[in-house]
Amino acid sequence: MAGDAREALLDRCVTLLKEGGFSQLSLREIAAGAGTSHRMLIYHFGSREGLLAEVVRRIEAEQRAALAALATQTDDPVEVSRRFWQRLADPALAPAERLFFEIYAHALFGRAWTESFRASVIAAWTGPVEEMFVQLGYDPAEARQRARLGLAATRGLLLDLLITDDRQLLDDVADLFAHLITAPRPPSA
């Protein structure tokens, strides 16, 4: 039962985040918005930071599931990339993405509460994306390189979008990148 209650509470917190963000809110304000008490949030997540990390973990899992679903809809990797970028660039996701980068910054400083985030922020994505490149015919070593490049570039483009809101240019850049990352490697000279 405790796990179900925790997941239901996490659902409410994710919904609250998607409605307008909450990284600037206190734990009590988040609790009020989610219809609970700050004590219940502490009981289930340990701290405000623990809650934020769990919210980001959940949203990241949703994004990976969305990418996997897109990959089943077409065998054109450029189109998969284009559709995934459109999903990421949706202004409705901006509050969650800002929170992601906020926690990323804390992880860079090795904050103890970001340990699970640091362990998964790259690893959780590279396996599925590598597999997509392998299915496209790349050998595993090159698939791994392309997956890491894709992850880094996509996060960079997203950060740029959140800072500049230059949607048209970044849509074009993301489309160019999709073509580049899926193109065969040129022969060595």
Polypeptide structure, described:
The protein is mainly alpha-helical. The chain has a domain at 56-182: Tetracycline Repressor, domain 2. The protein is built from ten helices and no strands. 24% of the residues are buried. The mean pLDDT is 91.
Task: State the main characteristics.
78% helix, Tetracycline Repressor, domain 2, 10 helices, mainly alpha, 189 residues
Give the number of helices.
10
Name the beta content range.
Answer: under 5%
Query: Which descriptor suits the 3D outline?
Result: elongated
Q: What is the ordering of alpha helices and beta strands?
A: HHHHHHHHHH
Question: Any idea of the CATH class of one domain?
Answer: Mainly Alpha
As for the CATH topology of one domain, it is: Tetracycline Repressor, domain 2
Query: What is the rounded Rg?
Result: 18 Å
Question: In terms of structural class, how would the helical and strand content be classed?
Answer: mainly alpha
* Cα distance spanning the termini: 62 Å
Unreliable residue runs: none
> Main sheet?
none
Give the name of the CATH architecture of one domain. Orthogonal Bundle
Helix content: over 70%
Residue-averaged pLDDT, rounded?
91
Total strands: the figure is: 0
